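Task: encode each sequence below as structure tokens.

Item 1
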Amino acid sequence: MLNQLVSIQEKMLDKIHQEKLYSTDYVKRFEYNVISYENSVKAVVAKIEIGEAHCGIAYVTDITKANALRVVAFDVPDECNQKATFAIGKLAQCKKEAEKFVDYILGEKGQKKIGKI
């Protein structure tokens, strides 16, 4: 069996279990093979890079030019995947700069940039 590293996988596994996307014992078999729980996805990728694990769950954005030869990404099926959402907060003391940043992120250039991530 493959050794698996996992950072935060609970939502994905809950969805797989609740919606019966895989066999009834899939979550149990998955968790049985976890060898380490990491505090960040970067730590997951690092352990894979140095050969301490065969696979792990991370973001595709953590696969970089520097580690692409040692780490291979596989897509998680849409029905199991968890969408990441991020909030933008504005600081009162930097209101003008914050509004410019939000306008950039929500504008065409910002959306193109985010789409590449």
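Item 2
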Amino acid sequence: MENLIFSLNATVPVFAMIILGMFFKKIDIIDDVFASKMNKFVFLIPLPVLLFKDLATLDFKTIWDTKFVLFCFFITILTIKDEYRKGELFFFSLRRHYPDQVNGYDLSPSY
């Protein structure tokens, strides 16, 4: 039951935002130009700030796993041919701290 609640806490907000965005687009509150500008803003400002905040508060000596980093590096080099996808996978595989993370993204912000 605990795993179900953890999974729902991770997925329900994502799906709620998707449904809310679809609803706002349907009633013409959000158009394609606004969505494009917000997408650019989120990737240029809040996500790097969140990444910096998370990295600034980590103790690298306790979480660094050389075997995992090398494994990710070699699997990425061997399996992914598209350079954009390599960078994306590298970013998410190196930015990890369990158990607050699912698929490479921190779902529970630390205040």
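Check on item 2: The first strand starts at residue 101 and ends at 102. The beta strands are 101-102, 105-106.
End of task.
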